[in-house]
Write a structure and sequence with these properties.
Largest sheet: 4 strands, antiparallel
Helix content: 10-25%
Order of helices and strands: HEEEEEEEEE
Strand order of the largest sheet: 3-4-7-6
Length: 148
């Protein structure tokens, strides 16, 4: 028996032992594209970001709009804003302006799916810093009402 025939004979055994349709992390279904984050705006690590911006996440393929819900994008843990889907772009517009000189962390939920049904999965957060001076830290302690 040649090596090629032996490898072909083992292929069905490999398939029988795999779970979730994968062998060693490779998708078995050809032609099904991955659904990953392709670009982020503001870019990770950027500083001097305007106070009135939208966070735009561009994915590698089209987004399934029915998988997008409020709360799936957050800035420093806050999900107050609007989400819109346009093809392969997801836009989060926060309510109001951002705080000057502040570092923001952006997180995208792993539950966002591509039009092909593939979830984006876990993504590292990324951050940016807004333009302007860092707000002063309030050093005065709240004392409360004075006794009479």
């Amino acid at each position: 028996m040649s090596v090629a025939r032996g490898a072909l004979a083992l292929f069905p055994l490999l398939l029988a032992g795999c779970q979730g349709g994968e062998v060693s992390g490779f998708a078995l279904e050809p032609g099904v594209p991955e659904f990953t984050i392709a670009a982020r705006s503001p870019a990770p690590g950027r500083s001097g970001v305007p106070l009135t911006i939208s966070v735009v996440v561009t994915f590698s393929t089209m987004i399934d709009p029915s998988s997008v819900q409020l709360g799936q994008v957050s800035l420093n843990g806050s999900t107050h804003g609007t989400l819109t889907v346009d093809g392969n772009m997801l836009r989060f517009t926060p309510v109001g302006s951002l705080t000057p000189g502040t570092a923001y962390s952006v997180a995208v939920s792993p539950d966002v799916h591509g039009a092909n049904g593939v979830p984006v999965g876990s993504n590292p957060t990324w951050g940016f810093k807004t333009t302007g001076a860092t707000p002063p830290i309030d050093t005065i302690l709240a004392i409360g009402p004075r006794p009479r």
